[in-house]
Structure formats: C-alpha cells, structure tokens
Amino acid sequence: MEYIFETRMMVRDYECDIEGIVNNANYLHYIEHTRHLFLKECGLSFAEMHQKGIDAVVARMNLQYKVPLRCDDEFLSRLNLRKEGLRYIFQQDIYRAVDNKLCFRSTVELVCIVNGRLGNSAEYDAAFAPFIHP
C-alpha cells in the first residue's frame, strides 16, 4: 500500500507494560499524533481550528494489533485518507522500522463539529483536497 504521510517515532520505556510490550492504549496516542502532524503539513492547526469553532472528532475506530512493539523500537506511523459523506476516513498503520513488519492497523473515522453542529468544514476539505481522490 502507498501512503500519503509518514512519521518516525520511538517507543519509550514508560509506554510498555509488565510484559515488556507497548500497552495497547499507546497505539492510539501514536496514530493521533500522526494525524496532528499530517494536519500541520496540510497547513492547519488542530488548536486554531478549535478556536474557530471547528472540531474534528473521532466517531469510530477499528483496531488490529499484529506484532507488538517493544522498548526502544523505532517505528513508522503511516496514513492514507479518503472522504465518504461527512466522514474523513484515515487508514493508519504502524510498522517496525528495523524490518518493516506490520505491527498495528487501524481505520479511524472523523467527523467535524462546526459551531456545535455536525457538518462539513470548508477548511478541512480544502487542506485535504490534494490527498482525497473522487
């Protein structure tokens, strides 16, 4: 699969549980951070959008844990994006850097709340336009 965005991160020791593997909840932090970096690359700030009354919120997630990450592992967090109706659908996958092994696969659906109501955001649509193909 080809991806439209990628960032490299490293597992920190406090993200691991007693089994020595990354605690499942931390993968959600990794993919959220990746989406925020992608948004910045698109020229938008999550915080500034909130100040304008536009909030992109998670509506649904589908998560698959494949191969565990461990302390000090470097990994690549990659994403793709499509739009269906009001939903922005992010395909986000995490690969261990040393061997490109798929560790985590997710589909994250976001919707925009514009001034308190579910709706389209012209700002998000414009920023994501180069990456969303009909």
Describe this structure in words.
- By secondary structure, this protein is α+β, with helices and mostly antiparallel strands.
- Helix content is 23%, strand content 41%.
- It contains three helices and six strands.
- It has helices spanning 24-41, 46-51, 122-128, and strands at residues 5-10, 54-65, 74-84, 87-96, 101-114, 117-118.
- Strands 1, 2, 3, 4, 5 and 6 form a six-stranded antiparallel β-sheet that branches.
- Strand 5 and strand 6 form a beta hairpin.
- The model has no long low-confidence stretch (mean pLDDT 96).
What is the approximate shape?
elongated
Number of strands: 6
Q: Please state the structural category.
A: alpha+beta
Report the radius of gyration as a whole number of Å: 16 Å
Strand percentage, roughly?
Answer: 35-45%
Low-confidence stretches: none
Largest sheet: 6 strands, antiparallel
Distance between the termini: 18 Å
Number of helices: 3
Estimate the helix proportion, in percent: 10-25%
Average pLDDT number: 96
What is the H-and-E element order?
Answer: EHHEEEEEH
Any descriptors?
41% strand, 3 helices, 134 residues, elongated, six-stranded antiparallel β-sheet
What is the secondary structure topology, with strand pairs?
Blueprint: E1 5-10, H1 24-41, H2 46-51, E2 54-65, E3 74-84, E4 87-96, E5 101-114, E6 117-118, H3 122-128
Antiparallel strand pairs: 1-3, 2-5, 3-4, 4-5, 5-6
